[in-house]
Amino acid sequence: MRRTRKSSRGMMLIELIAYLLILGAVATLISEMVVTSITFSREENKRDVMIQRVDSAIASLRRDVWSAVSIKSAGDMLVLVEPDGVVFWKTEPGGKLSRFTAEQLPQKTTFLDVPKFTFTPQDKSLRVTVESGPAGAAKREQITLVSQYLLAGGQP
Question: pTM (2 decimals)?
Answer without folding.
Answer: 0.72
